Amino acid sequence: MPQPATLTVSLLVNGRRIAAEIDPRRTLLDLLREDCGLTGPKKGCDHGQCGACTVHVDGKRMLSCLKLAACADGHAVTTIEGIAGEAGLHPLQQAFIDHDAFQCGYCTSGQIMSALEALADPALTTRAQIQEFMSGNLCRCGAYNGIVDAIMDLKADAQL
Amino acid sequence: MSRQAGAGGEAARQIGAPRSRVDGVAKVTGRAAYAADHALPAQAHAWAVRSPVAAGTILGFALAEARAVAGVIAIYTHLDAAQTLGWSADNPALAASGEALGRQAMAQAEPEPPPFYQPLTGPEILFAGQWIAVVVAETPEAAREAALLVRAEIAPAPASAVLDRETDSFVSPGFFFGAEMQVARPAAPPADAVTLAETYATPAQFHHPMEPSATVADWRADGVTIHDSTQGVWAARAFIARSLGIEADRVSLHARYVGGGFGCKNQMWPHQALAAHLSRALGRPVRLQLSRADMSVASGHRSQTSQDVRLTAAPDGALQALAHVSWLPTSLRGNFFEPCGLNSMLLYATPGLDIRHHVARKSIPSPTVFRGPGETPGSFALECALDELARRLDVDPIALRRRNYAMRDDYHGRDWSANRLAACYEQGAAAFGWPQAPTPPRARREGRERVGIGMATTAYPAPALAATVRLRLRRDGPLAVETSATDIGTGMATILAQAVADGLGWPIDDIVVRLASTDYPDAPTAGRSKSTASVLPAAAEACRMLLERLRALGPAPAPESNRAPFHLLDAAGLDELVVEGSSTGMPPGTDLSFYSFGAHFVEVRVDEALGRVRVSRVVSALDCGAIVNPKTAASQIKGGIVFGIGMALMEKGEFHPAAARLVNDNLADYAVPVHADVPEMEVIFVGGADERFNAFGARGLGEIGLPGVAAAIANAVFDATGKRIRSLPITPADIVG
Amino acid sequence: MRSFDYLRVDSLAQALAALSVPGSRALAGGTTLVDLMKLGVETPARLVDIGGLPLATIARDGEALLIGALASNSAVAEHPAVLRHAPAIAQAILSGASGQIRNMASLAGNLMQRTRCPYFRAADWPCDKREPGSGCAAATGSTAHHAVLGVGSPCRAVHPSDLAVALLALDAEVHVAGPAGPRRIAMARFYRLPADTPAIETELAPGELITHVAVPVGDLAGRSTYLKLRGRASYEFASASVAAAIRVEEGVVGAVAVALGGLGTVPWRDVAAEADLLGRPLSRAAVDRFCDALLAPAQPRADNRYKLDLARGAIRRCLLPDMMEETA
Question: Taking the model in full, what pTM does it have?
Answer without folding.
Answer: 0.98
